[in-house]
């Protein structure tokens, strides 16, 4: 070997995109904890506490609540692969990239997919779900995205869950971007299976997908006629490892589990209600600042997520250049639009650790500077005042 490789040198960015969010320093420290075996009694104690912490954050009594190995998409695939059998009817809400991903996943697993659709930027209406239910013979499940990160839309789940139960279907929710940012009420809303991730609202690095299964979901899995199509994600075998029998299935990502454990401790210490309120307050200030500058939000009014905002790119502005300048001059990451929103919107995240007043102020100031320098028609000198007023309830200090 004659090559020499430099040390890792990524900068410590201010992560204001759709995830990952900034990792809490306590979580980074937890990752220095010694790696032990996946059946070590010390690790088993961590596993037991992880299940309790996740139940608290998901607001559920579900016994089967644990972090699946892999990112949020692994949790999605685990839930779908275990609930769907060949030929099952699946109703999927599609109003953005992550609903489309769910539909693709269900189809690959052999489901007959019936889409309940809405335009990008709008919620899926219960009517659309009802129509899709009518086109299905015997719907196995309804799956829908709670926080559609591609559009910034906050999907209400309760009414759709009631529809699922009325039709004898299971209710599945993608809470990848909603958990620990806005209320996620698994038991109250009667959600049968739900998946999230570590790198958005929980502010740990990407790598695990917290999942929860209701007793009804477990019964459906036990009643399967065929084996789960995925060996790695087979809940029967994985539940044995996370349950009392502790039978080895695959090696748990030890360090990631430490990270999630500490991230959940941080969440529980802050308190869920306080955390939701913090997300609402910072989003209100960010949105006030955008409005004062003349920037328009894209998601349906009244259904906007606090933790992820979609902002229309002003006419004639090269959106990629704005993002590159934000990164180069201000160390801030925001994201581009996906699919039909490509080139047209920015996606701005205020999730978990990244969701703080100093980041709101910095981003508004930086955007105003960059857009003005690029010749966009934005109002100058108003955004910070408007943001401030949103925090204090009046203008000025
Ligand atoms: C990020 C995201 C996913 C995918 O999660 P990964 O951790 O990237 O696999 C799924 N659904 C939604 C709504 C997301 O925002």
Summarize the structure.
With 397 residues, this protein is of the alpha/beta class. It is 41% helix and 15% strand. It has helices at 25-30, 41-58, 72-83, 97-108, 126-135, 158-166, 215-222, 235-242, 254-270, 272-293, 319-330, 357-373, 383-392, and strands spanning 14-15, 64-69, 89-94, 112-117, 139-145, 147-148, 153-154, 170-174, 193-195, 208-213, 308-312, 332-333, 335-336, 345-349.
What does this structure look like?
This protein is an alpha/beta fold and 397 residues long. It has 2 domains: 25-269, Aspartate Aminotransferase, domain 2 (3-Layer(aba) Sandwich), CATH 3.40.640; 273-392, Aspartate Aminotransferase, domain 1. Helix content is 41%, strand content 15%. It has 13 helices and 14 strands. A 7-stranded mixed sheet has the order 2-10-9-8-5-3-4, with helices on both faces. The chain has a 3-stranded antiparallel sheet with strand order 11-14-13, covered by helices on one side. Strands 1-12 form a two-stranded parallel sheet. Helix 2 crosses helix 9 and helix 10 runs antiparallel to helix 13 (383-392). The longest helix is centred in the last third of the chain and has 22 residues, at 272-293. The protein starts with 13 loop residues before the first strand and ends in a 5-residue tail after the last helix. The model has no long low-confidence stretch (mean pLDDT 97). Bound molecules: pyridoxal-5'-phosphate. Pyridoxal-5'-phosphate is lined by residues 18-19, 71-73, 98, 145, 147, 149, 174, 176-177, 197, 206.
């Amino acid at each position: 070997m004659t090559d020499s490789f430099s040390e890792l040198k990524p900068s410590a960015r201010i992560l204001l995109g759709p995830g990952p969010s900034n990792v809490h320093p306590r979580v980074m420290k937890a990752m220095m904890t010694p790696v032990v075996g996946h059946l070590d009694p010390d690790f088993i104690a961590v596993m037991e506490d992880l299940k309790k912490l996740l139940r608290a954050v998901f607001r559920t009594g579900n016994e089967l609540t644990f972090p699946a190995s892999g990112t949020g998409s692994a949790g999605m695939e685990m839930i779908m692969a275990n609930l769907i059998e060949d030929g099952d009817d699946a109703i999927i809400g599609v109003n953005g990239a992550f609903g489309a991903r769910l539909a693709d996943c269900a189809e690959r697993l052999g489901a007959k997919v019936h889409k309940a659709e809405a335009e990008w930027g709008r919620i899926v209406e219960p009517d659309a779900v009802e129509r899709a239910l009518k086109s299905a013979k015997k719907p196995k499940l309804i799956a829908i995205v709670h926080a559609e990160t591609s559009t910034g839309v906050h999907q209400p789940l309760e009414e759709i869950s009631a529809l699922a139960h009325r039709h004898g279907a299971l209710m599945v929710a993608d809470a990848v971007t909603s958990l620990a940012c806005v209320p996620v009420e698994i038991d109250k809303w009667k959600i049968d299976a739900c998946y999230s991730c570590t790198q958005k609202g929980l502010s740990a690095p990407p790598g695990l997908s917290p999942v929860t299964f209701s007793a009804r979901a477990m019964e459906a899995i036990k009643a399967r006629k065929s084996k789960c199509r995925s060996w790695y994600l087979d809940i029967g075998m994985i539940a044995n490892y996370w349950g009392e029998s502790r039978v080895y299935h695959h090696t748990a990502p030890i360090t990631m589990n430490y990270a999630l454990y500490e991230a959940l401790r941080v969440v529980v210490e802050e308190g869920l209600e306080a955390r939701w309120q913090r997300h609402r307050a910072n989003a209100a200030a960010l949105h006030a600042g955008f409005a004062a500058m003349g920037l328009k939000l894209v998601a349906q009014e009244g259904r906007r997520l606090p933790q992820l905002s979609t902002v229309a790119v002003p006419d004639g502005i090269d959106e990629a250049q704005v993002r590159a300048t934000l990164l180069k001059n201000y160390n801030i990451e925001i994201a581009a639009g996906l699919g039909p929103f490509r080139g047209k919107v920015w996606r701005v995240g205020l999730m978990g650790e990244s969701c703080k007043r100093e980041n709101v102020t910095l981003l508004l100031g930086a955007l105003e500077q960059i857009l003005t320098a690029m010749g966009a028609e934005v109002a100058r000198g108003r955004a910070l005042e408007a943001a401030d007023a949103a925090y204090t309830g009046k203008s000025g200090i």
